[in-house]
């Protein structure tokens, strides 16, 4: 299947590890030109080398903390300067969200958590929107999470942030679609990344378990017998951004191995 991504300019945030890195390599294999962003320069150097080896004809990196307006504005300025356009933004980067006992999470931690997930996605969308509006084209893929549809008391800030992003993705798509811009969400369940490990370590004590016990319970309950790999999510992201998904807009593609219960319209 030809995804028609060759030569497209793709920004991937959080590109140095996990879902972001897997996504960058998938786009590279399709011949896309890449602007990779992450906070750590060393990780970006390795990611750029891997993307070049995977087939990307052009790779540029920018150190970027998506919790900072100035960094995100500089990322988009780099895109304009080096590529002249942005065809795809993969809005993947997110920082550390609080988890654990509700009574132990301070108001300050809640507010900081919004900036680590919710506002990061909104900030990047606001920065890329003028570019895509001027082009009258583009695709924004927001990487969300199925915690939005699976509330847990020990996981509350994560679920609430993702639920807000589901709503944002649809409302932003309503704004963007008449201007030729597609906005799509991709929502994985648990993925085997370093971020997941941090979340499990924070969540387990609130449930009276060790991280190992909680992880074993999660694995045992999954219909496919395993958590998602980063590549599982990366493949869905590439499809969502491609010409083969040209009429998918405002929707959230769930990548959860049938672990989400219920039917959502």
From TrEMBL:
<dbReference type="GO" id="GO:0016491">
    <property type="term" value="F:oxidoreductase activity"/>
</dbReference>
<keyword id="KW-0560">Oxidoreductase</keyword>
<dbReference type="Pfam" id="PF13561">
    <property type="entry name" value="adh_short_C2"/>
</dbReference>
<protein>
    <recommendedName>
        <fullName>Short-chain dehydrogenase</fullName>
    </recommendedName>
</protein>
<dbReference type="InterPro" id="IPR002347">
    <property type="entry name" value="SDR_fam"/>
</dbReference>
<comment type="similarity">
    <text>Belongs to the short-chain dehydrogenases/reductases (SDR) family.</text>
</comment>
<dbReference type="InterPro" id="IPR036291">
    <property type="entry name" value="NAD(P)-bd_dom_sf"/>
</dbReference>
